[in-house]
Predict the 3D structure of the following.
Amino acid sequence: MKSFLNVTDLGDLRVALDEAMEIKNDRYKYAELGKNKTALLVFFNNSLRTRLSTQKAAQNLGMNVIVLDVNAGAWKLEAERGVVMDSDKSEHLLEAIPVMASYCDVIGIRSFAGLTDREYDYAETVYHQFVKYSGRPVFAMETATVHPLQAFADLITIEEHKTAKRPKVVLTWAPHPKALPQAVPNSFAEWMNAADVDFVVTHPEGYELDPAFVGNARVEYDQMKAFEGADFIYAKNWSCPGVTRPEQYGQILEDYHTQLDWTVSERQMAVTNNGKFMHCLPVRRNMIVTDDVIESPNSLVIPEAANREISATVVLKRILESI
Ligand code: AN0
Ligand code: CP
């Protein structure tokens, strides 16, 4: 595997899930595979889980790891070609990428959506520059439109905790004070569409996800109706994807104070099928979800985060096997 952005990059999901379980049972099984290979993890944005779990995954495989926080010590990087570089950006990605590539064998990228230029974000411009100019396998650690390491960990978590053969999984929008990317819900929708689950999405009107990810998934604008009989509730905020009105891309469409009834609480969880609660974290309590729900025995947020080590180990193993 030379690039990891989409669910199709992993091939047969059943095989990938079996591999995840194999690694979970013995996470050092492939400790020789990465000997004398170096993973470079490049962060343009903050991270707790991705930073730690991906380093741990690389170490499980015997790799060396270098972490670069671009905004904390490196030169500020320009990404657009043709710009007269008279701002605070001292270096261009077109030099920085091949230089970084010369020190490593695999590159992970975290580069969030700018949320101002839909076309630029949805073309995954920064990610593809890394692919093109590094000559190395590249994997997404949340890029402009996707977070596949998260979605894979989510799928592993659902697989481990499901009680029905084909569980009902609901992705629900929830309020947040700041405009957030669509990467997490995009990937979650993409991966749930590919998995054997009954998938429903619920959000206020105007927050429709890009068809490339949400496909033909059922959309229910009434959150309570969507929650009925659900086995898993996956909460996340996202800003306007700008599908029907591109000029609203990246915006918060209504003051969050008026939408606090979307916060996941016992009121909605009561109509589920003893539903499990999921969120990728970091989460704002009593905004996305109440204290009671996130602390309840049905909350999976901690095992879900722990599975990030497993998804990253499988992905790095696949990449190492291809170089
Ligand atoms: C980011 C987001 O919503 O994409 C990262 C989530 C993993 N969240 C925040 O910026 C709070
Ligand atoms: N879920 C997730 O990717 O968390 P971080 O932003 O802390 O890496």
Remarks:
- Residues 142, 180-181, 183-184, 280, 282 surround N-acetyl-L-norvaline (ligand 1) (CB under 6 Å).
